[in-house]
Design brief:
Layout: E1 9-14, E2 35-40, E3 59-66, H1 70-82, E4 89-91, E5 94-96, E6 99-105, E7 108-114, E8 117-119, E9 125-132, H2 138-170, E10 176-180, H3 183-216
Parallel strand pairs: 3-9
Antiparallel strand pairs: 1-2, 4-9, 5-8, 6-7, 7-10
Helix pairs in contact: 2-3
Length: about 240
């Protein structure tokens, strides 16, 4: 329970968002029952909040990119694709917060670390461009929007890979152990093995992301996996 300051009391507030999906023993509840404790003054309204499950899948950051005209834009974007320069990028952060325990006696200790994987939804960011040039016609604007919509779908594929990969590794219980004459030595041995294990996890994830980009050519051939190709076709 939260320790509240003078003049406030702890009040438990439900998330209140539409449930997606139900959790624990709930059966299709109308609103999410996850709770958070707030320190509120008498009569103060309960704040609206959204738990981690109801945060947006990702944040979007835009960067303007200007061209001379549509033909100039199409030519430069094709050149970027040829050079494997991605028009958009996705940022993410996969985290491991392992728990550790010790066993043994003086002179022979074992440290066991159990990984706990997650990703930070607040740091999931899709960086998208905004294309423009002077005197754009309505038809050109529509062509740009179609290309950028397809590009967003491609980047959402990267988000899905993160979500599915973390769910996969989080569902596998793994214990990493290291031994030594003292708890400090055991922790050092355990940490070294854990570091190698984490490197393998990150490498496998990177491999999946790279395979997706290779198959779709950074979205310009998104139709290879389903969807529209992220290409600017001038009207």
């Amino acid at each position: 329970m939260a320790k509240c300051g003078k003049g406030t009391v702890a009040r438990t507030v439900k998330c209140g968002e539409a449930t997606k999906p139900p959790h624990t023993d709930e059966v299709n509840p109308g609103t999410c029952s996850r709770v958070k404790v707030f320190c509120l003054a008498p009569g103060e309204a309960e704040p609206d909040w959204a738990c981690w499950q109801h945060l947006p899948r990702y944040q979007t950051v835009y960067k303007d990119r200007e061209f001379l005209n549509c033909a100039d834009a199409a030519a430069k974007l094709k050149e970027d694709a040829k050079n494997k320069t991605a028009a958009a990028t996705t940022e993410y952060r996969i985290k491991n917060a392992p728990t550790t325990s010790y066993s043994g006696v003086e002179g022979n200790y074992t440290c066991t670390a159990t990984p706990h994987w997650s990703f930070d939804r607040k740091k999931m960011v899709i960086n998208l461009p905004r294309y423009s040039w002077p005197n754009m016609t309505d038809a050109e604007k529509a062509a740009v929007q179609k290309a950028l919509d397809a590009l967003r779908v491609h980047e959402e594929g990267h988000v899905t890979i993160v979500e599915e990969y973390v769910a996969e590794i989080a569902g596998k219980k793994t214990n990493i152990s290291g031994s030594g004459p003292t708890t400090k030595d055991a922790l050092a041995a355990c940490s070294a093995k854990l570091k190698d294990y984490e490197a393998g996890i990150f490498a496998k994830h990177r491999e999946r992301q790279d395979e997706y980009d290779s198959k779709t050519e950074n979205g310009t051939k998104q139709s290879e996996v389903g969807g529209e190709d992220a290409q600017l076709v001038c009207p």
